[in-house]
Amino acid sequence: MSTAASASPSSDRVLAGVALMLGFCVTAPLLDVAAKLASATVPVGQITAARFVVQCALMAPLVWAMGLSVQVPRGQWLALMARAVFLLVSTFCFIAALRVMPLADTLAIVFVAPFIVLLVGKFHLGEEVGPRRVGAAIVGFVGVLFVIQPSFAAFGAVAFLPLGSAVGFAFYILVTRCLSRQVHPVILQFHTGLLASLVCVPFSGWPRARGRGSSIRSGPTASPGSGCWGSASSPRSAT
Predict the structure, then answer these.
(1) Which residue, 86, 104, 85, 129, is CA-closest to 33?
(2) What is the mean pLDDT of residues 95-108?
(3) Average pLDDT over the chain, rounded to an integer
(4) Tell me: the pLDDT tens digits for 59-97?
(5) How many CB atoms lie within 10 A of CB 180?
(6) What is d(CA 177, CA 136) in angstroms, rounded to the nearest whole number?
(7) Fewer Cβ atoms within 10 A, N terminus or C terminus of the chain?
(8) What's the pLDDT at 239?
(9) Sorting pLDDT into bands at 50, 70 and 90, what band is 109?
(10) What dihedral angle (degrees, nearest 10) is formed by the CA atoms of 111, 115, 121, 123?
(11) Pair 178, 234: CB distance under 8 Å
(12) Contact present, 195 and 99 (Cβ < 8 Å)
């Protein structure tokens, strides 16, 4: 009886993680489309800044409504800053690539991120990685190589920007994995938006009136997806 009882919560946590990841997969493309549309008229840095400022502004009333405290232990601030910087770099590289490359090609190269997460999760975090996961990651990595080669021939060094985005996003995932058991997902989203805004806005500025609407739309589309990812990272393994 005790074995069956203990298996049920574990199964529920896995199903909850799967549902949250599906939520991320549904909402994340909305950010990609919004960023692609904005990149035609707005500088990359300003789109990136708007994405994080709007995220912070959306999370603030949610923090208040849920009665959460924005205070976190002093020892976690470095990890929070690293999380914000990794996502900031990933977002900037991704949007910079979208200005030149088709959305489909950019996303295909970014899909190398799970392979990086798998390697770091296994060798640095000591997480168990089965042969099926390894096989799926290798197949995905080979597919990325097939996309990178013609993309490099067509777009030059710009084709490496999605790869930089994948590396930044992979380490963002891993830091999220470490923080998600200690910090509420909404607080994670609030501080990520705040810290990334403080880093980005002084250098990039705020979008002008002409492209402000399309830039701001990237924030509401990014927040639900990132929230789903942060919540999913708690009950599930990073790999």
Answers:
(1) 104
(2) 85
(3) 75
(4) 888 889 989 888 888 888 999 999 999 999 999 999 899
(5) 20
(6) 21
(7) N
(8) 45
(9) confident
(10) -160
(11) no
(12) no
CA dihedral 55, 180, 167, 79 (to 10 degrees): 90
> CA–CA distance from 233 to each of 7, 17, 20, 185 (Å)?
19, 7, 9, 9
Angle at 219 between CA 156 and CA 211, to 5 degrees: 65
What string of H, E and C letters represents the secondary structure of the chain?
CHHHHHHHHHHHHHHHHHHHHHHHHHHHHHHHHHHHHHCCCCCHHHHHHHHHHHHHHHHHHHHHHCCCCCCCCHHHHHHHHHHHHHHHHHHHHHHHHHCCCCHHHHHHHHCCHHHHHHHHHHHCCCCCCCHHHHHHHHHHHHHHHHHHHHHHHHHHHHHHHHHHHHHHHHHHHHHHHHHCCCCCHHHHHHHHHHHHHHHHHHHHCCCCHHHHHHHHCHHHHHHHHHHHHHHHCCCCCCC
The model's pLDDT over 121-146, given as tens digits with 9 standing for 90+, comes to 777 666 777 777 778 777 777 877 77
Would you say how long the chain is, in residues? Answer: 239
- Per the CB < 8 A criterion, the answer to whether 53 and 197 are in contact is yes
| Cα separation, 220 vs 231, whole angstroms | 17
- pLDDT the model gives residue 2: 43
- Give the span between the Cα atoms of 154 and 148, in whole angstroms: 10
Distance of CA 30 to the CA centre of its chain: 13
Using CB atoms within 10 Å of the CB of residue 202, give its burial: 0 to 12 exposed, 13 to 18 middle, 19+ buried: exposed
Q: Six-digit token pair at 116?
A: 């990086």
